[in-house]
Amino acid sequence: MKQLLSLLCLSLPLLLLSGLQAEARSQHHEHLEKLFVFGDSYVDTGNTRIGQPGSWKNPYGITFPGKPAGRFSDGRVLTDYIAKFLGLKSPVPYKFRKFIPQNLKYGMNFAYGGTGVFDTSSKNPNMTIQIDFFKQLIKENVYAASDLSRSVALVSVAGNDYNFYLARNGSLQGFPSFIASVVNQTATNLLRIQSLGVKKIVVGGLQPLGCLPGSTASSSFQKCNSTFNDLVVLHNNLLNQAVTKLNQQTKNQSPFIILDLYESFISVLNQPSTNNIKDELKPCCVGISSEYSCGSVDENNVKKYKVCDDPKSSFFWDLLHPTQAGWQAVYNKLQTTNALQQIRY
Question: Which residues form a coiled coil (predicted)?
Fold first, then answer.
């Protein structure tokens, strides 16, 4: 009897612990059911219109899924890797929500190539409007409160805001104050997504714009533009401050998380061979001259671009976007940081 009591005393705490662990695992999986995506071409998986440049034209998509499918790359983009990390299928693009209803259970992608927190595209909706789309779906009961409480949002913005600012002949002197306004609007958008009931919001820090082929072309793709990268560092510092403040103000435990894309990109570009990348700054797909871009054809449908022999050996696909191999390398680097792990808990 004493031995039986001793065994019960030992086993009861173990049973309780096992029950708590099972409950924790159950709660853990509850947070991973849906992914909602907002932003630009780094996370767009098909919303941008077919008639617009890139994404829906050859040779985009040649690595995955083997044909143009709306991704600004030869294959998968950041959204696909974050979805994979969460154990989900990549969420259906908003544009196709009525054509692929069975995939609504994984969430939805509202991102459009060329967009920003402000108006940067006359054809595609900025982030505020993307959130409006999301709010309308909630109003229509496409997603219930219980869905949102088990969801994660991924946000990628700002690169197009800065390109648009420069295209409008914005001065370098005025850049810092413009950066502050972009970060403030981003913070407003993040709070709005949270107010709709999303559990965790993951926002990408800005990638090193000075290392994109569009910036390095002037040096024959040999070196990054340090002036642009200094401005990106300012953006990321302000974004970190804003997110820290949001987390201090919220009652939830750190619902806002930053993915450090800057350091991830730089790390891969500084050690390309560790990821089997041979061309770190030179893009795989380029126009045959400055008047053409990747995917361009003339009036006779003759190709006006050229593609490298092996996209897997290039970090960049075109003048702005990584290849699938580039995104895979960035994702591998992100997995060594705490940010991705924080999404799950």
Answer: none
